[in-house]
Amino acid sequence: MKKSDKLEAIFALQESLNRQIGIETASLDEEGRERWLLNYARAMSQEIAELTDSVPWKWWARYQKRDFQNARVELVDLFHFLVSAAQVLGMTADDLFLAYQKKHRVNQERIASGYRQKDPDDSRHV
């Protein structure tokens, strides 16, 4: 498999997994898209909490241990839900990649300019 095919493969795998559990993201109506986008956003929030718990963040607790292997697993879980959310929005792997590139350029421009003021329109084209 070529490197450029990996994101497309992830999208295909996720679509298959979603179908296995009865979710056809491509055929959702507006209400279904809203409901599943919210479901995936909540799931991502939970996965971020689980990722956070993989490293000792409670400065007052002495029992905590870092678990980088679990952190990797939580990151992959997060990616599952991220790809599903993209699919709910009708995005393909190419769409996500192109949007990432555009937003990356915005972030580079923000850094180069010192990012001293928020421009609510600088990402509208993404």
Protein architecture, described:
- The chain has 126 residues and is mainly alpha-helical.
- It folds into two domains: 3-91, all-alpha NTP pyrophosphatase fold; 93-126.
- 63% of the residues lie in helices and 0% in strands.
- The chain contains four helices and no strands.
- The chain has helices spanning 6-20, 30-52, 68-88, 93-113.
- Helix 2 (30-52) packs antiparallel against helix 3.
- The longest helix has 23 residues, at 30-52.
Number of helices: 4
Distance between the termini: 29 Å
Element-level helix/strand string: HHHH
CATH architecture level-2 label of the largest domain: Orthogonal Bundle
Tally the beta strands: 0
- What's the average pLDDT? 93
Give the secondary structure arrangement, pairings included.
Layout: H1 6-20, H2 30-52, H3 68-88, H4 93-113
Helix pairs in contact: 1-3, 2-3
Task: Give me some keywords for this one.
2 domains; all-alpha NTP pyrophosphatase fold; 63% helix; 0% strand; mainly alpha; dUTPase/dCTP_pyrophosphatase; dUTPase; single chain; globular; 126 residues
